[in-house]
Design brief:
Shape: globular
Region (Disordered): 1-72
CATH class of the largest domain: Alpha Beta
Number of domains: 2
Biased composition (Basic and acidic residues): 1-37, 49-72
InterPro entries: AP_endonuc_2, AP_endonuc_F2_Zn_BS, Xyl_isomerase-like_sf, Xyl_isomerase-like_TIM-brl
Number of helices: 14
Distance between the termini: 127 Å
Oligomer: single chain
Organism: Rhizophagus irregularis (strain DAOM 197198w)
Cofactor: Zn(2+)
CATH superfamily of the largest domain: Divalent-metal-dependent TIM barrel enzymes
CATH topology of the largest domain: TIM Barrel
Radius of gyration: 44 Å
Length: 435
């Protein structure tokens, strides 16, 4: 009995001494929380002692923008400004500093001061073949840059059959610019596509050429133009010249019926291959077969005429050529001229244009042209080679040169064709070697 009582008593003592299970759990939780708080405190201390670079930058920017300094305004009053506002003032209102200048736009405005001077009260209307890049209305601007009193253009891409229609806004701008700058339609000579061949004996191919030809005439009407210059065509070796001439005349008659007021201006050719129009007789034959003689004309290209055997270099030779033109065609049909020197010799049958006075024709022929009253009141268009960088200045120089020949009576005997051609050949050889 005593032993049982003792054991019970010992168990009670042990229970009192040993803590309760719930108490132990609470103590464990408190221990974990203490450890966590200690670890966080340690981390915070580490951040304070060794802050990151990002923290440094944030602190610096905050400090810089929160700092305030006193700055005197123009009125003398003091204002407290942040560093950020001071920087703005530095660029805008600091003393002894000019205000910010706005950057110039890349697109420069075209003004009349940029245009070359055009001669007035003249009988010779000299110009050049100019670009319509960006819109047909830009042809007038390009002509004004070179001081041209006449100009020629391609109404579309001359080496493609199809082309998008003209923009109505560009048509209106073209008409307005012509009126504003006194470009009459009789001094504007648009050029036809190189692909057109109205003399082709193949009916399907000739019809394709005719549709392109008719489209160009209708474009002329939209723009208010009255002249259209084109190459007559070729036999392509499949028919006689007489048959080809008849095809050309038939196409002209057909087009004149489908249009109202545009004159078809036939250009003389150099004569290579099966080309029609190298002789004045062939041009006269085409005209004789056109029904409406009031709407057909001729354009003389000096380089083409020289290559075909018509000499222009001396007063005597020039007069013989002009007399032959008058006898076969007549000056009443002359609607324009292309002024080009020739890289090839007389009768070469090769179409190689050269700059004025720098070819085998020479400057004397152009002096005779500029002083010939039979060539008044028609467009005299340059189609000479131009530099790759600045075509406008090249044309401007040649226009000044041609106008400078008016009134000169003494013949010009200087000929720089040899030096010019040798220099050109040397440049070609160098370019080939470099390639």
């Amino acid at each position: 009995m005593l032993s049982l009582r003792r054991s019970e008593r010992l168990c009670e003592i042990r229970k009192e001494e040993s803590p309760n299970k719930n108490v132990k759990k609470e103590e464990k939780k408190e221990g974990k929380e203490r450890e966590e708080t200690c670890s966080t405190n340690k981390k915070r201390k580490r951040k304070d002692i060794k802050p990151n670079k990002k923290d440094k930058e944030v602190k610096r920017t905050k400090e810089n923008y929160t700092k305030k300094k006193a700055a005197k305004s123009e009125d003398g009053e003091t204002k407290v400004l942040s560093v950020f506002n001071q920087r703005i003032l530095y660029y805008l209102k600091l003393e002894n500093k000019p205000e910010r200048v706005e950057k110039k736009s890349r697109k420069t405005k075209i003004t009349q001061d940029m245009f070359a001077k055009r001669l007035s009260n003249i009988t010779k209307y000299v110009g050049a073949h100019v670009s319509i890049s960006g819109g047909v209305q830009n042809a007038i601007t390009n002509s004004l840059f070179i001081g041209g009193n006449a100009f020629a253009v391609f109404l579309r891409n001359q080496r493609r059959w199809t082309a998008p229609p003209l923009d109505p806004k560009n048509i209106e701008a073209f008409r307005e610019n012509c009126l504003q700058h006194n470009y009459a339609s009789k001094f504007i000579l648009p050029h036809g596509s190189y692909l057109i061949n109205l003399g082709n004996p193949d009916q399907e191919k000739r019809e394709k050429s005719y549709q392109a030809f008719l489209e160009d005439l209708r474009r002329c009407e939209l723009l208010g133009l009255t002249l259209y210059n084109f190459h007559p065509g070729s036999t392509v070796g499949n028919c006689t010249k007489e048959q080809s001439i008849q095809h050309i005349a038939n196409c002209i008659n057909r087009a004149l019926k489908e249009t109202s007021n545009v004159t078809c201006v036939i250009e003389n050719m150099a004569g290579s291959g099966n080309i029609i129009g190298s002789r004045f007789e062939e041009l006269a034959d085409i005209i004789s077969r056109v029904d409406d003689k009031n709407r057909v004309g001729v354009c003389i290209d000096t380089c083409h005429a020289f290559a075909a055997g018509y000499d222009l270099r001396t007063n005597k030779a020039y007069e013989e050529t002009m007399q032959e033109f008058s006898r076969h065609i007549g000056f009443q049909y002359l609607r324009g001229m292309h002024l080009n020197d020739s890289e090839t010799e007389l009768g070469s049958l090769r179409d190689r244009h050269a700059n004025i006075g720098k070819g085998h024709i020479g400057l004397e022929a152009f002096r005779l042209i500029m002083n010939d009253d039979r060539l008044n009141e028609i467009p005299l268009i340059l189609e000479t080679p131009i530099g790759p960088d600045d075509e406008l200045s090249d044309y401007h120089k040649e226009i000044e040169l041609l106008y400078g020949l008016i009134g000169k009576k003494s013949p010009i005997t200087t000929n720089c064709v040899k030096t010019h051609i040798t220099e050109k050949n040397k440049a070609k050889r160098k370019s080939k070697k470099s390639k």
